[in-house]
Design goal:
Elements (H helix, E strand, L loop, with lengths): L17 E2 L6 H15 L3 E6 L2 E6 L9 E9 L5 H10 L1 H8 L3 E9 L4 E8 L8 E11 L8 E10 L7 H6 L4 E2 L1 E11 L4 E11 L6 H29 L2
Parallel strand pairs: 1-8, 7-9
Antiparallel strand pairs: 2-3, 3-4, 4-11, 5-6, 6-7, 7-8, 8-10, 10-11
């Protein structure tokens, strides 16, 4: 059942940094991600262009911020589910610089498991922003559902790598710069009997520094839209070269 937009949102997936010593269990991450994805079905549409739909929800809780959602669909003849999941799920960070404009450098700080790793990302942001650093816990895996075919989920959460004195290497490897915080859930699933694939991204951001929240709320939707458009072109071009 899709929850009412009036339901109190859970902030387990939020801009509050995860402690290195208290990483959520996989079952909790998936459950919270599913709730957020379901809520996004009720958000108001803000823009539709170039086969990309943009939705928005204003959330009052300070730690949760404003959330935005971008949805696009692929015909399986353009990009197969296997290829899409390979690029977005299995090898996401390897391909991140190809699909995210402005990302100058990224490095894996710590490998946790085949589905979880910690990464630090350095963005050369355009004025008036100075370069930003985002350090995230990324979780990606295929999820079994009975209601439709193959499904993959990717969760990115801000993480505090200075929260553990016994893992100093993680803190030392973090990129230097103004720290921002970013939380995102991405859902890749087969639809229409397996003939199409939907890619849904739900995200919120705090750019850090002296940047006010209204600026982040204004900039993130357009940034997500542009990133998705750039990714679509790259994915289709790559798929065409592999045919």
């Amino acid at each position: 059942m899709v929850p009412s937009s009036a339901d109190a949102p859970s902030c387990a997936i939020s801009l509050v940094p995860v402690k290195l010593t208290n990483i959520p269990a996989e079952v909790d991450l998936i459950a919270d991600a599913q709730l957020l994805l379901e809520r996004s079905l009720l958000w108001r549409p803000a823009r539709f262009a170039d086969s990309i739909q943009l939705f928005h929800e204003q959330r009052p809780a300070e730690s949760c911020g404003s959330w935005h959602c971008v949805v696009t669909r692929f015909d399986k003849r353009e990009v197969s589910f296997s290829k899409l999941w390979e690029k977005l799920g299995q090898n996401r960070m390897v391909n991140q610089k190809r699909i995210i404009p402005g990302l100058e450098k990224l490095e894996r700080i710590e490998y946790i498991s085949d589905s979880q790793s910690i990464w630090t990302l350095f963005y050369d942001s355009p004025p008036p922003l100075s370069p930003r650093v985002f350090t995230i816990l990324q979780y990606a895996r295929m999820v079994d559902y009975s209601t439709h075919r193959r499904t993959g989920i990717i969760i990115s959460l801000p993480i505090d790598v200075f929260s553990s004195k016994s893992r100093k290497n993680a803190a030392e490897m973090e990129a230097r710069g103004v720290k921002g915080r970013y939380a995102c859930v991405e859902h890749v699933k087969e639809i229409d009997g397996g003939n199409a694939i939907e890619w849904r991204r739900v995200a919120t951001v705090d750019f850090g520094g002296l940047v006010p929240k209204f600026f982040a709320d204004r900039e993130l939707p357009e940034k997500m839209f542009d990133e998705t458009l750039h990714a679509i072109l790259w994915l289709k071009q790559h798929a065409a070269r592999c045919m």
